[in-house]
Amino acid sequence: MDIITLFGIAIALAMDAFAVALSAGLILPELTGRHLFRFGFHFGLFQALMPILGWLAGTSIRALIESFDHWLAFGLLVLVGGKMLWEARQDDEENEQPNDPTRGLSLVMLSIATSIDALAVGLSLAILGVTIWTPALVIGLVAGILTVCGMLLGRRLGRAWGTGVEIFGGLVLIAIGVKILVEHTLLQ
Fold first, then answer.
1. Where are the domains of the chain?
2. Are 70 and 117 in contact (CB under 8 A)?
3. Does the pTM of the predicted model rise above 0.85?
4. What angle do CA 20, 65, 112 make, to 5 degrees?
5. Model confidence band, residue 165 (pLDDT cutoffs 50, 70, 90)
6. Nearest CA to 13 among 143, 173, 185?
7. Is there a contact between 119 and 54 (Cβ–Cβ < 8 Å)?
8. Backbone angles phi, psi at 21, to 5 degrees
9. In angstroms, rounded to a whole number, what is the distance separating the alpha carbons of residues 118 and 55?
10. Residue 11: is it exposed, middle or buried by C-beta count within 10 angstroms (0-12/13-18/19+)?
11. d(CA 110, CA 182)
12. Sorting pLDDT into bands at 50, 70 and 90, what band is 93?
């Protein structure tokens, strides 16, 4: 696989992670190096591991994964986005700190939801007979870098927009989930 194709695939796979990171940068009251590292590391790690898992699985379970992967991604993104919307509606006294998407179960769910397409890429590379190690490394690094860039950009936009950005972030996550669902159900 040539390097241009590989980077094109890596950038395409990282777009959902970038959008989620942008939303996270919008809602966090303070963006620290720890936030950037956690999000970038986990998104990059999952983006690197999913193609490896897909490649290892090969074609034997492809039909099983394709039948529900889009529903899983949709469900996870709507769950996290809905939680953000719910928390945004709470009184400021009850919810002094918005949910930190760079921690705990939210981080894991977002990492999985944004990397499911990478699983399918791994399956495709197995079918094509391409070794997975270099593509997985490039995909993970690009996703990690674009995730950090998305958070930094989201932070700048969050400062400019002020209140209400958590609602916007939740709506973005739900929209990404709907996009994934539409692409896999209506456009195929």
1. 3-26+33-93+105-185
2. no
3. no
4. 25
5. low
6. 143
7. yes
8. -65, -40
9. 10
10. middle
11. 19
12. very low
